[in-house]
Design brief:
With 448 residues, the chain is of the alpha/beta class. The protein has helices at residues 2-14, 20-42, 50-84, 90-123, 130-141, 153-176, 183-189, 234-253, 270-284, 301-304, 313-318, 347-350, 353-365, 403-413, 432-441, and strands at 194-199, 258-263, 289-293, 328-329, 334-337, 368-372, 391-397, 418-426. It is rod-shaped. The model is unreliable at 147-151, 209-214, 430-435 and 441-448 (pLDDT under 50).
């Protein structure tokens, strides 16, 4: 049976889908061979007459020998026809070859049938468990499983190679991914000190009943991401106060009063951070603060604070009269200079003597001057204010800013001019730090 199976595989490899009748013949032979193997493993019940069984076995052995001889003759005939075929009769040679192959397959099928009968009679003489015999009979009666794919080692090699290729592609993509996702990535990207990490702001459902409204004198906030909005998380308020505290600590070491807020790319939250920092300095530490919107290409402070449309810094820098720069006073401690009409080319305006004198005057009139400057990764507007700014805070947004872009932004300003990094939009952790503020402020107030 093994020898016949091997020769069937050799002949099947030589055939093509243009010979469906021969392929069907091969499938039939394989089904019969599978049924014969199943019955042989089942070991059916022995027959009653051993003498009669011996005569049948001997007769079957003679039939097997005769069938193998017929098979060998068919192979020799096929080889002889192929050897004597002339080049001019290619079509006839192909037809004769297929006919000879069919005869070979039929001879193989006959040999398998004979050997199947031989195996059936041979195993009848062996003892068997009745329960095992019943299970084997049911297994033999079941239809053979369909053949989906040929059994070949190349399929395994192909699947293994595909898996290895996928792993290599994933490794390369991970190696090229330079986004800053956490503090570990930030420390690997730059050695500039971290001022504060601000979590991604998720507004609370309602304001706490005991919330302090010390910021009620400010205009109605347009978004819950502003620190004086009732739905702004208390965690966010404290994080921006921590940033203000860090600036006050730096002031004790070096005289700083004018601070620029910038980022490497647009959309990283620099304007929101500038507004929240200015409010934290003014309301948390009772400082006189001036917020200046110097992003004259894409101003956003006026919209974020819901201020009416009016002239601002850009319009005042274009004029040559003696009128003062328009300053909007939000309360007794916080004032804002809006950008005014946007400008496509603000560099000539920001580099004028008028701008330098304005910042020099603001330095003496206010405790802090917070400037919302343009991103440094695309344009050079922030760099031209370097002479009038004591230092810059550079924003890095989690899952957005990349290490090379952050390093380039710091290098364009000069690392000695950087006060620190504000790591923005950090995802909430699952540890105690994420719940510390809510748990603390949920405690009842101590008696007076």
């Amino acid at each position: 049976v093994d020898d016949a199976r091997e020769r069937l595989g050799v002949l099947e490899a030589r055939l093509t889908p243009q010979h469906p009748d021969v392929l069907r013949q091969i499938d039939t032979v394989r089904e019969r061979e599978a049924a014969a193997t199943t019955l042989a493993a089942a070991r059916p019940r022995p027959v009653a007459d051993p003498t009669e069984q011996t005569r049948e076995l001997k007769a079957l052995e003679e039939r097997v020998v005769a069938s193998e001889a017929a098979h060998a003759r068919a192979l020799r005939d096929a080889a002889a026809v192929e050897a004597t075929t002339t080049p001019g009769d290619a079509a006839g040679a192909e037809r004769d070859r297929l006919l000879r192959e069919r005869e070979v397959l039929q001879a193989i099928a006959t040999a398998l049938e004979v050997k199947r009968d031989f195996l059936r009679m041979k195993v009848k003489a062996l003892p068997i468990d009745p329960a095992q015999d019943e299970a084997a009979t049911e297994a033999a009666a079941a239809p053979p499983a369909p053949r989906l794919l040929p059994s070949t080692p190349w399929i395994g090699w192909g699947l293994g190679g595909a898996l290895l290729f996928a792993v290599m592609v994933g490794f390369v993509l991970h190696a090229r991914d330079t986004k800053i996702r956490d503090l570990v990535d930030l420390r690997a990207a730059t050695d500039v000190p971290l001022l504060v990490s601000v979590n991604e702001i998720v507004p609370v459902r309602a304001a706490p009943a005991t919330a302090e409204r010390e910021l009620s004198t400010l205009p109605e906030p347009a978004t819950a991401t502003l620190v004086w909005h009732p739905r702004c998380p208390r965690r966010t308020v404290e994080q921006y106060r921590r940033l203000a505290q860090g600036l006050r600590r730096i002031r004790a070491e070096r005289q700083i009063r004018v601070v620029g807020i910038t980022s490497a790319l647009p959309g990283e939250g620099k304007t929101l951070s500038a507004v929240n920092l200015a409010v934290s300095l003014a309301e948390g530490y009772r400082q006189r603060v001036l917020l200046v919107d110097a992003d004259l290409r894409r101003p956003a402070v006026q919209t974020l604070l819901s201020l009416p449309k009016q002239q601002g810094l850009a319009d005042w820098l274009r004029r040559d009269d003696e009128r003062e720069c328009p300053v909007v006073r939000l309360n007794s401690r916080l004032s804002v200079v809006p950008a005014g009409t946007p400008s496509d080319d603000p560099l000539p305006l920001l580099t004028t003597l008028r701008m330098a004198l304005f910042l020099a005057t603001a330095r003496t009139d206010f405790d802090w001057v917070v400037i919302d400057t343009p991103p440094t990764g695309l344009i050079a507007d922030a760099g031209v204010l370097d002479a009038n700014v004591d230092g810059f805070i550079v924003l890095a947004a989690a899952e957005r800013t990349t290490g090379p872009v952050l390093r380039q932004a710091i290098a364009s300003l000069g690392q000695d001019r950087i006060l620190g990094v504000l790591f923005n939009r950090v995802r909430h952790s699952d540890g105690a730090d994420s719940d510390s503020y809510s748990n603390y402020y949920a405690m009842p107030s101590a008696p007076q």
